[in-house]
Amino acid sequence: MKEALGARVRERRLKLGMSVQELAKKAEVSASYIYAIESGVRGSQIEKLTRIARALETTVIDLWSNEQ
């Protein structure tokens, strides 16, 4: 999952013609965090939330929804 996320982030960044530094500044995170995401070394918080949602037999969208 981390590798796929990283590949999609890199692909989108390159499609927009952005450097890692530009993306980091715009996203208000460090460039090293972007490098770690893109290389698959680090996952994201959404990855953890996705695992929690699966364990609860629901989706992240349902967890975020205000509707009960």
Automatic annotation (TrEMBL):
* MF GO annotations: DNA binding; DNA-binding transcription factor activity
Q: Which UniProt keywords apply?
A: DNA-binding
Q: Where is the HTH cro/C1-type domain?
A: 9-63
Superkingdom of the source? Bacteria
**InterPro entries attached here?**
Cro/C1-type_HTH, Lambda_DNA-bd_dom_sf, TransReg_Diox_bact_type
Q: Which GO terms describe its cellular component?
A: cytosol
Report any Pfam family annotated for this entry: HTH_3
PANTHER family assigned to the protein according to its UniProt record, in alphabetical order: HTH-TYPE TRANSCRIPTIONAL REGULATOR (PTHR46797), METHYLPHOSPHONATE SYNTHASE (PTHR46797:SF1)
Q: What is this protein called?
A: HTH cro/C1-type domain-containing protein
